[in-house]
Amino acid sequence: MITEIDKVKMVNYYYGMLMNKFLRILFVTFFCISSSAFAHDMQAVSFLKMRNYKKAQGYCLSLTKASAQQEACALLIVRHAIKHHAYNALEKEFICLCLSFQTINTLKEHVLHALHGTFKPLFYIPYFKNYLHNHMCVLSENETLGRFYDFPEVLKVLYQAIDFTAQETQKGNIILFHGQAAQWAFFQNIYREILSIKTNRVLSDDFIALRFNQKTNLNSAHVYDLRTNGVTNYNQDRFNIFFTAATPFQNGKGSNPYTYLVYNSDQSTKAGRYAGSIETIFEDNGMKREFDLLVKNNPILFDELEALYEAANKECGDHGNLIALSLPKKLADKLCYPTESGGPVRPATINGKEETNISEIIKHYDQTGKWLEFALILAPEILDPFKAQKAGVIMKYFGPMITNNTKKYQEFKNKLAEIMDLARYYYVLRTKN
After folding, report:
1. Do residues 401 and 274 lie in contact, with contact meaning Cβ atoms separated by under 8 Å?
2. Per residue in 271-292, pLDDT tens?
3. Using CA atoms, how far apart are residues 359 and 329, in angstroms rounded to an integer?
4. Are 245 and 251 in contact (CB under 8 A)?
5. Of 73, 137, 265, 292, whose CB has the highest number of CB atoms within 10 Å?
6. What is the mean pLDDT of residues 14-30?
7. 92 and 164 housed in the same domain
8. How confident is residue 407, by pLDDT bands cut at 50, 70 and 90?
9. Does 289 share its domain with 145?
10. 110 and 192 in one domain?
11. 233 with 125: CB under 8 angstroms?
């Protein structure tokens, strides 16, 4: 007969067996996980021992996304690269991954150092950090890095700008950046079509109209005076210069190209936005008659065009655009000077001496201060598409909508082509008579 004591003993026995089995399973599982993690670490270490950063980064990217294991592996690779001064070995996709880890502050600091080496001359540590500290949202540095990564569509565009910068830098050119609201690219599209009609020539894709007419009072003497003395009469010369920066992150709120790209804004007023501006572009370029005929047949024609453009931009995050300008050094030295708000000459201090030559300033860019703008003088080599092409000037838009050439943006372009084909017909008819 089984007593109560025997029952208790049996329960304890089977409970002990179950617990022993459970603990063994737990130990084996923990050992396997630990071994797996250790194996992963050893895999990365073996690549790093051979200084094969490409395979190490590829391996890290293949791990489970956003896992602790991937984060630890990324940190291991970046620290190794920093220790051995192998900044250039860190690739864009890997650095993008690193920026997604918002819990490891030290990793972010390493990535900032890596950016200094990998993306020079586009990213310089002081200016990247200045951007973080002067962000429009006034966030702390670490929070701002999180916000920086919140815009993957903008990061993708920046990486394309990086490739362009590297390509043009290898040619020995000077690269400058300007951020602006998306509305200006809308006007630019119309102006390009008008120029094409007026000249009966196809414009290069490497040209961006920085002003919407080619009227200029600049002769060689005036250009030299501006380059030497800067703007002394703002009302007279403000339309003769174009403010730029040497990196997208240069300067704080109000003069930072990257913030204009992200937040679809700039210093120019948005009041009225498109109202009246389209008619002015036609009128300033001698095609007011064609505009009147277009809107006579359809009074809301350009409202419909604007709606297509706005819808296309909102689909891509409602961002602005970054303009990258590549100028041969000789031309840049002739047409650019360091400046600040208002357009005066503001020399940079290089090796303890004042310097206004842009080539020398860019060469020693790490010595410049937090604020530094460059005025680009809008001579014919910049405003005239055919003279710009001959002078070796290249201008590119970098923005999520334009760069990706989305379906909705193509719908806008097709509608614009339809309108401007009709404008061309009216223009040819008028000028033949």
Report:
1. no
2. 445 556 899 999 999 999 999 9
3. 7
4. yes
5. 73
6. 47
7. no
8. very high
9. no
10. no
11. no
Collect contacts of 228-234 with beta carbons under 8 A, ≥24 apart: 228/345, 229/345, 230/337, 230/339, 230/343, 230/344, 230/345, 230/346, 230/375, 231/339, 231/342, 231/343, 231/344, 231/375, 232/344, 234/342, 234/343
pLDDT per position as a tens digit, 144-187: 444 555 677 887 788 788 788 878 888 999 999 999 999 999 99
Same-domain status, 188 and 228:
yes
Hey, what's the torsion of the CAs at 46, 49, 55, 61, to 10 degrees?
Answer: 70
Tell whether 407 and 269 lie within a shared domain. Answer: yes
169 and 98 in one domain? no
Among 190, 204, 153, 422, which residue's Cα sits nearest to residue 308?
A: 190
For residue 191, how many other CB atoms are within 10 A of its CB?
A: 21
Return the residue matching tokens 């864009």. 92
Among 110, 128, 150, where does a domain finish? Answer: 150
Q: How far is CA 281 from CA 191, 213, 251, 276, in A?
A: 7, 8, 32, 9
Q: Tell me the pLDDT band of 43, cut-offs 50, 70 and 90.
A: confident
Reported residue count of the chain is 433
State which H helix or E strand residue 156 sits in.
helix 152-170
Number of domains in the chain: 2
pLDDT tier, 244 (very low <50, low <70, confident <90, very high otherwise): very high
Same domain, 99 and 163: no
Residue 167, SS3 per DSSP: helix
Per-residue pLDDT tens over the stretch 3-15 = 655 544 554 554 4
Of 10-14, 74-78, 265-269, 331-335, minimum mean pLDDT range: 10-14
- Residues spanned by the domain of 93: 4-150
**Of 129, 150, 171, the domain-final residue:** 150
Report the Cα–Cα distance between both ends of the chain, in Å, rounded: 124
Q: Are residues 200 and 80 in the same domain?
A: no
